[in-house]
Design goal:
Order of helices and strands of chain B: HHHEEHH
Strand content of chain C: 25-35%
Structural class of chain C: alpha/beta
Chains: A mainly alpha (255), B mainly alpha (127), C alpha/beta (231)
Largest sheet of chain C: 6 strands, mixed
Largest interface: A-C, 22 and 23 residues
Oligomer: heterotrimer
Number of strands of chain C: 9
Order of helices and strands of chain C: EEEHEHEHHHEHEHEEHH
Distance between the termini of chain C: 39 Å
Shape of chain C: globular
Number of helices of chain C: 9
Largest sheet of chain B: 2 strands, antiparallel
Strand order of the largest sheet of chain B: 1-2
Radius of gyration of chain B: 17 Å
Strand order of the largest sheet of chain C: 5-6-7-3-8-9
Distance between the termini of chain B: 16 Å
Helix content of chain B: 55-70%
Structural class of chain B: mainly alpha
Helix content of chain C: 25-40%
Strand content of chain B: 5-15%
Amino acid sequence: MLGKLMKYEFMAMGRIFVPMYAALIAVTIISRLLALLPHSAPIIIGTTIASVLVGAVGVITFILIIQRFMKNLLSDEGYLMMTLPVKTDSLILSKMFVATIFSIVSFLVSTLAILVLSSFNFAYNFQLLGAWLSNLEGRYLLVLFQALVIVILAIFGSILLIYTCMSLSMLVNKRRGLMSFGVFVGITTIIQIIVAIATTIFAINHTFDYTRFVNMSYFAIGQLVILIITTIALIQYAVFYFITRYMLKRRLNLL
Amino acid sequence: MSWEFSPDKPIYLQLQEQVKLRIVSGKYLPGEKLASVRDLSIEAAVNPNTMQRALAELERDGLVYTERTSGRFVTNDTEVISKMKNDIAIELVDVFLSKMNEIGYSKSEAADIVRNSKEVESTDGNS
Amino acid sequence: MAILKCRDLVKSYGRKTALRDVNFAIEPGRIVGLLGPNGSGKTTLIKIATGLLTATSGSIKIDDMSPGKETKAIVSYLPEATYLNDWMKVSQLVNFFDDFYADFDREKANEMLRNLNIDDKESLKSLSKGTKEKVQLILVMARNAKLYLLDEPIGGVDPASRDYILNTIIKNYNPEASVVISTHLISDIEQVLDDVVFLKDGQIVLSTTVDDLRETHGMSVDGYFREVFKC
């Protein structure tokens, strides 16, 4: 069922994104070709349009992720989606995964456009990258991989935070947009307070033995830091997920 | 002939009456196979359970019978049908006479008006 | 075994109680009218049966199961609103239902669409409101569900469409399934109903068969409704 939900999610988002990506790529190519001409005016126009489109892609991606969740699950279409014989988890995850994929693709397409426009030398730079990677020690490849995982988890987390804010906005009947935003401010504030308190406690704690770190290698310390950060992040994201799930399952309020 | 219902009586009773009418008037011939409960209820735009109940009652009265594998049929017994036709006629006359009485006509006065009235066009070629 | 059974069902929002002391059962093969004025709790009751709302207390069982993923597979729900994805074509919506509902009968759906001359290549948003509603009804009735919950299926619909809807309900009659029709337009559907349940201010005030009501009160359900709910 998750696969089927994702299929329809791809259809719904793809019909907006694909034309958008196509437009961006087309404008980028045209601008690049115009650069071959002697006059500078077409280049400037082309580059400006492309830059605007890059910005637009980012904004539209963000808006569309919000709109899909809001429109498909929390308003009229919710009557269809929430009565399907599927698990609530599948509904949330299908949207989260597809939103993540499009976020990444949007980022890559935008980056590609910018590089093409700035006459980036792909061949040369990829050669450099390849050489660097093959000379890298095994354990640093691990760090690279961990960084990738953290980035993807962070995207999950941001999306789940957005979903949490929208789900909690079902607690009111009017002005849900405002409520979502309010919840967002509230949650981020609470997180900052918790972080501040935790840091203070940690800082004034006299009993913590710092000497054990003296003999650790930089690499080991780095791994420890990554572990702590990832754990904290995962706890956060889990809380977001369960709040969203609870609201959809037990406190659904379709208007 | 269309299926029409009044609001004050149970529908299954009215369905019984209307099927009886169709039998005595010859719209459903003796021994003719009746359409399925489903098709009849679609035609009459009523609940199939209600139609089923009406037909069960008619079966009890001997106007229709069921052959297990082939379906429901109108009775072949023409005497039963004639008696039914007669009973319906008597009922109609009773209603007519009491209404005429209400406006002040006696039975013989009512009979005169009937005798002098225009011949009714027969609808399906049945008398 | 009853297809739908409610016991001491209560639904309240803060101080407001939408449903209370709701007790009734629906056997298979029945077409039931859920009748009551606006705000009497009909939609709330239906939403609890579909799993869109959670009851405050009491129990509700569909085929002896509590509302959840399994009951959603055997309950076919037609809400009042237009709830289908606007941008999809009719053919895509048929595929959608086919994908998610094992009991969906694609042939039946396509046949019904053909009978109404609905072009399945059209996107939903290009159809008129009446046609949109018919598409929704077709998709819901093309499922071989055990319980059909129709919330105000004939309100705001022209008389010919109304006849088509009632005709579809009769045609799809299945002695192992039941249909619950919630409405306040009683005279149009009365002859299609087996049983009626009257709701007033969230409570059941009457639960009987159409035949019994007519015999007991000498008037149609519609007439009786007007009596009971006279302003």
